[in-house]
Structure formats: structure tokens, C-alpha cells
């Protein structure tokens, strides 16, 4: 006679369920992004229906103090610029008046123990909105690399702990690593957007940083959502180029990719990036009463961890932990 297995005793009460859980969440797993603008006392929603915010350096400092109280000790900084500061060569990316540069210095001075990560891409600063230098309608990969390297060095000099190349230019990690090492910044680590798909879920983010491309789209350099094996090749290339942390972006629709890489390299430090469209889907559904926000968000975060991510980049970290 066949007997059936009994699983209910693993689930019978909260303490037993906790004891048998394979993953858990801690504020230390979380990285909070900041969108920084010029000026002071700025803390504004990017639009009435999108709960993402722009911060000036002073308001960012206040927010960081709150994050540290919650136990979140990693932040990822993005710059946002007005049209008049944008040009074809993204000159403003390395301007001493760039809010990211000013923020790194101010944050390090006020909160020396926080880990500062900075986005390295030129699309917030290019007049055409692309992540690479453009000639006609073409993206010039190799001409973009020195600019990314210069931007990374600029952030390292200001005090960044990690630089985070997101342009999806081939060779970007190597170019940045060499530039940092050459200037004695071997201690500055690289958290690479190793896997970045050309996704429709970035919509609200593009509005946040005013960086929609003026022509074409990013499909010539971001990954094709139909491909999985290429993701492993992109990951291996970043390992060879000496990246320290590997981001999969977006996360919800690419859990198979996270899992695949985790199976391939269990020791690699993987980071799931919950992008703005994914975040907004959950919030919009909760607003409509379709979902319980915190239950749904917790389930999603657990899925990231279960798939192999150790770190999670999300716009929701500070809200989530403050309501815990
Ligand atoms: Zn970009």
C-alpha cells in the first residue's frame, strides 16, 4: 500500500513555518535608489500618480538618516538634469556641480558608514537620451567607454563605494576597472547591470530621469527578452571583466535568469532590480483593492531571494521597512 507524505506539520504555526523557511528578508538586503536634482529643499513626486520622488542633496540627507534608522545601509544614486545641461557628449556627467557628485561628498561626510553606489550611464545627460555616444542613428560603443570610465573615476574620487555601469555597452566593466585601478581606486567595487533587458517595465523610471530616447529605442544594446542563454554569456563576460556584483534587471519577469545564473555560479553576489513598472503594478493593484500591498510585496521579495538574489534594488524599501 502506498502511503502519502505529510507536509502539514512543516506549516502548522508561524514559528514552525519560520523555522522551515529557506529564505528571509532583512533591511540589509535592500538598496534604496535616489533621484537627485539641483537646488535645495526639493522633495517632490515626479507626477501625481507615480510615487517616485526627486530629491535635492539636503532632503536626500534627511531621508538617508531615516533609512539608517530602518537598517537600510545601501543607496544607489541617479542624476536628473534639465534640458539646458544636456549635450551630445554628456559633459554634465562629470561636472563638479552635478547633484550626484555633490551628494556623494555630502553623504560621506554626514554618514561615513553608509554604502554609496552610483549609476554610471550617460542617458540622463545626453541631449538624445541614449546610453551611448551617437553618430547619425548609430550608438558608438567604443567611444562611449572612456566617458563611462571617466564618470566612474569622478564618482570614486568623490567617495563612492561602488560604481554601477548600466549603459549596456560591451566592455564597460573592463574599461571602468582599468581606469579605477590606474588611479589607485582598486577598493572601489563594480556592481554591474550585467543582465539588462530591453523592457517595457522601465516606463515610469524614464519619466523620472527625463531620459526617453529622442529617436529609436534601446534594443540595439539592451538584451532581447526572448533570450536566456545570452544572459549567461553576458554574466560570464562581466565575471571576466572583474565585476563584483551582478544585477538582473528587471526582476519579476526574469526570475528564470536569476535562477539560471545562481545555479551556474552559486557564490556570485546577485542583485534583483525591481524596476519602476513592476513596483507600480503592485501599488496600482493595491490601490484598486485587488491586492494586499505588503503581503504581495513580501511574496515578490521572497521570490527574488529564492531565485538566488542576495540584494534587492527597489523603490519600495524605505516604505516597506517603515511599515513593518
Ligand atoms: Zn542609460
Describe, in short, the structure shown.
38% of the residues lie in helices and 19% in strands. By secondary structure, the chain is α/β, with parallel strands linked by helices. The chain has a single domain (27-322), classed as Alpha-Beta Barrel (TIM Barrel).
Give an overview of the whole structure.
- It is a single chain.
- The chain has 324 residues and is α/β, with parallel strands linked by helices.
- The protein has one domain: Alpha-Beta Barrel (TIM Barrel), CATH 3.20.20.70.
- The protein is 38% helix and 19% strand.
- Bound molecules: zinc ion.
- The site of zinc ion has 5 residues, from loops.
Features of this protein?
about 325 residues, TIM Barrel, eight-stranded parallel beta barrel, two-stranded antiparallel ribbon, 12 strands, binds zinc ion
Topology summary:
Blueprint: H1 14-19, E1 30-36, E2 43-47, E3 50-55, H2 57-70, E4 74-79, H3 99-110, E5 115-120, E6 133-135, E7 138-140, H4 141-158, E8 162-165, H5 172-182, E9 189-196, H6 203-208, H7 229-240, E10 245-249, H8 255-264, E11 269-273, H9 276-287, H10 293-307, E12 311-313, H11 317-322
Parallel strand pairs: 1-3, 1-4, 1-12, 4-5, 5-8, 8-9, 9-10, 10-11, 11-12
Antiparallel strand pairs: 2-3, 6-7
Helix pairs in contact: 2-3, 4-5, 8-10
The protein binds zinc ion.
Zinc ion binds at residues 121, 123, 131, 166-167.
Amino acid at each position: 500500500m502506498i502511503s502519502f507524505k505529510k507536509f502539514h506539520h512543516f506549516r502548522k504555526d508561524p514559528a514552525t513555518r519560520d523555522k522551515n523557511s529557506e529564505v528571509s528578508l532583512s533591511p540589509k538586503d535592500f538598496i534604496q535608489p535616489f533621484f537627485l536634482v539641483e537646488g535645495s529643499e526639493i522633495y517632490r513626486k515626479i507626477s501625481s500618480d507615480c510615487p517616485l520622488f526627486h530629491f535635492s542633496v539636503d532632503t536626500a540627507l534627511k531621508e538617508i538618516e531615516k533609512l539608517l534608522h530602518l537598517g537600510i545601509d545601501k543607496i544607489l544614486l541617479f542624476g536628473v538634469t534639465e534640458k539646458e545641461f544636456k549635450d551630445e557628449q554628456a559633459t554634465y556627467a562629470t561636472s563638479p556641480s552635478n547633484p550626484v557628485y555633490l551628494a556623494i561628498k555630502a553623504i560621506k561626510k554626514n554618514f561615513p558608514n553608509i554604502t554609496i553606489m552610483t549609476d554610471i550611464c550617460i542617458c540622463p545627460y545626453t541631449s538624445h537620451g541614449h546610453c551611448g555616444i551617437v553618430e547619425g542613428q548609430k550608438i558608438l560603443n567604443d567611444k562611449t567607454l572612456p566617458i563611462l570610465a571617466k564618470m566612474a573615476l569622478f564618482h570614486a574620487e568623490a567617495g563612492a563605494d561602488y560604481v554601477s555601469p548600466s549603459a549596456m555597452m560591451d566592455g564597460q566593466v573592463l574599461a571602468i576597472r582599468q581606469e579605477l585601478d590606474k588611479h589607485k581606486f582598486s577598493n572601489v567595487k563594480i556592481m554591474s547591470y550585467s543582465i539588462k533587458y530591453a523592457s517595457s517595465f522601465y516606463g515610469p523610471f524614464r519619466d523620472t530621469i527625463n531620459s526617453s530616447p529622442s529617436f529609436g529605442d534601446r534594443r540595439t544594446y539592451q538584451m532581447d527578452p526572448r533570450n536566456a542563454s545570452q544572459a549567461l554569456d553576458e554574466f560570464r563576460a562581466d565575471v571576466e571583466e572583474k565585476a563584483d556584483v551582478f544585477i538582473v534587471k528587471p526582476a519579476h519577469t526574469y526570475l528564470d535568469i536569476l535562477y539560471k545564473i545562481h545555479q551556474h555560479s552559486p557564490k556570485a553576489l546577485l542583485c534583483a532590480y525591481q524596476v519602476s513598472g513592476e513596483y507600480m503594478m503592485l501599488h496600482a493593484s493595491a490601490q484598486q483593492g485587488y491586492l494586499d500591498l505588503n503581503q504581495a510585496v513580501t511574496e515578490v521579495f521572497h521570490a527574488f531571494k529564492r531565485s538566488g538574489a542576495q540584494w534587492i534594488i527597489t523603490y519600495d524599501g524605505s516604505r516597506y521597512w517603515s511599515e513593518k
